Amino acid sequence: MKKTNPSLYILPYIFLFLFSCNEALEEVPDNRTQIDTPEKIGELLTAAYPQASYATFLEPRTDNAQDKGPSSSDIRYNTEAFYWRDTNDNTIDFSNNYWNQAYKAIAQANHALQAIEKLDQGEQTDALKAEALVARAYSHFMLVNIWAKSYNPNTAASDLGIPYVTEPEDVVFKDYKRHTVAEVYAAIEKDLTEGIPMLTGAYETPKYHFNIDAAHAFASRFYLLKGEWEKVVFHSTKVLGTGSIGLLRDWANKYRGLTYSQLVQIYSAAEEPTNLLLISANSLFGRTYATSRYQLNPKLNRALFNRSTNPTTKNWAYPIYGNDEVLNIPKQFEYFKVTNPSAGIGYPFVTYVLFSADEVLLNRIEANIMLGNITAAVADINLYLSAKTLQYNPSTDSLDEEEIASFYTTDSGKYHPWYSIPSSHLPFIDCVLQLKQKEFFNEGMRWFDIRRMGMTITHQDVFGSTFTLTKDDLRKQLQIPETAAAFGLQKNPR
């Protein structure tokens, strides 16, 4: 039998089925043929989002992680990520699991789209189609930005991307190929721009679906990576309007005085205005984010969160808890789903924030800087700082252009995106990237900035050995899972 690629998300145990290859090729992998009402399609779309964590294996790769020493917990996905090693583990919280879950989510979206095409009930199915298209675009967007090179219009037409899947999988084995980064981005943009105008946001739990604000937030991030600054500002402003502290995560005021337990719960709460899209994923991160060996150590804590890094010269409002071995900001809330009460058996789930108003504001700041709209960017920087700085007083703590420019780096060797940054804009870009680094600490977001900005980072262990990831290091593209590569999907160079 000819060797072909398996379904991108079917795990290795599929090959243990005791039937012949011919029988396998005729087998429908799931029973979705009776999805014949809008309600059933809506239920299908609840699983059209990657139900897995990327923070677990991306955050330790960044400059947000350092060695806390052998007395801390050695968690394998944490250790392998810190040393930028390729992995071949499909269990939860590893990169391969995210790959599998993302393609599973894509399959859900594609089956929904197929059912919508057959049903076609006007506005009701148009809204479902919109969610399916935007959700499909999102999963592909995450995959291409983890397993392929960051977008560069000068090389995207030849850079290896990932398979962009637009048809339902109706066989166990199916041929796939890696599209180029340019092809993947074009397909993402097509799905995204087609889907957004049809979104209605009429969900029982809107924060767990691509509501209108979440979709514009996605577009804001997408165009930021493409360097299309006007579109970043447009989509960001769709979410933010003219800007209000009420849309930001208000560490300085609203969160001040809350207990650790309250902070963990409110961070990813659907009621929190800044949270635009949430996902509940099977994950152990709620138990390991503070105890893992390669996380926040005292030296890194000072480098990131000391008041000397705040341009207002006041203290940051971010709450750092724990002793030297468990320093953390409370974010990851675990819900344990019990499957056997008498035995105490079940599955841990963590709620993750996929998009927030904070990110959207920071995207708009960066885009306005690149457009030369420094006055608008500075106004947003001051708005942002007012929610992140203790005892912020707008009459005395608001910064002007000169104060920001003198506080942040003018080192032209720090950032190497595909586009040029004017020297006069560099301190403002450094400002927004440092603000993002703090705000999304331990969420994996820093990895995407490291990639797109061509940053070099260094890790050091407690024995003094250093390990460097250069700006063009091939390990910035995670290796394709062996279960996909074994059936012909081209691996990333090493």
Class from secondary-structure proportions: mainly alpha
Count the beta strands: 7
Largest sheet: 3 strands, antiparallel
Low-confidence stretches: 1-6, 10-32
Question: What is the CATH class name?
Answer: Mainly Alpha
Map the helices and strands:
Blueprint: H1 21-26, H2 38-45, H3 55-58, E1 66-67, H4 76-82, H5 95-119, H6 123-147, H7 181-195, H8 212-226, H9 229-240, H10 260-267, E2 275-282, H11 285-288, E3 294-295, H12 298-305, E4 334-340, E5 345-356, H13 357-371, H14 374-386, H15 394-397, H16 401-407, H17 426-439, H18 446-452, E6 457-460, E7 466-469, H19 482-485
Helix pairs in contact: 2-5, 2-6, 5-6, 6-7, 8-9, 8-13, 9-13, 13-14, 13-17, 16-17
Structure description:
- The chain is mainly α and 494 residues long.
- The chain has one domain: Serine Threonine Protein Phosphatase 5, Tetratricopeptide repeat, CATH 1.25.40.
- The chain has 19 helices and seven strands.
- The strands form three sheets. A three-stranded antiparallel β-sheet has the order 2-5-4.
- Helix 9 runs antiparallel to helix 13.
- The two termini are 31 Å apart.
- The N terminus is likely disordered.
Summarize this, please?
With 494 residues, this protein is mainly alpha-helical.
Task: Throw out a few tags for this protein.
494 residues, mainly alpha, 3-stranded antiparallel β-sheet, two-stranded antiparallel sheet
